[in-house]
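Annex B. Sample input.
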Amino acid sequence: MKLFREIAKELLVVILGILVALAINNYVQDRKNKQFLKESITLIQTEQAVNAQKLQKSIARQKESIQIYQQHIDADSLSIAELIARSKGFTTINLSQSAWSKLLSKHVELVDYKLFKSLTKIENQLAFIDDIKLRLGDVGFDRALKTDKASKQLVLTLMQDLVRAEEELAEEYAYFNEITQ
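Annex B, continued. Sample output.
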């Protein structure tokens, strides 16, 4: 019986030692995770601030191009290529999302739902913008010499869609910054 008690005491000491070591390990890992998440969010905010500046310039430029394009859309003698040239063309910008990709690939489980939802929406909006740019390029190239109103209107609609999509992305950047402050 005495031997059993001594073995139980020894076992209890070992178990308590293991539990303390696990608790310390969990605490250290939790601190590392919080630090990684904080650094990742800071990187994302920095990246998005640069993106937001590019976006605002692009939106202003696109709106100016749309306005000039609209002024000449009824001119039957002007082709789409000529309209685009007169409106100073349409611009495309490259927006980075690498900081979010890093966080997503390493520790997505650390991200709360609102943050995850916002970043996912940004990622989807970037893909949507890329799709519009591709479609705009394809239509503009395929119909460059067309002078009919329907073709011109299609290009105009795509240009307007691009601006709306970029404005929605800018709003989501602002929302992300709001929830991470």
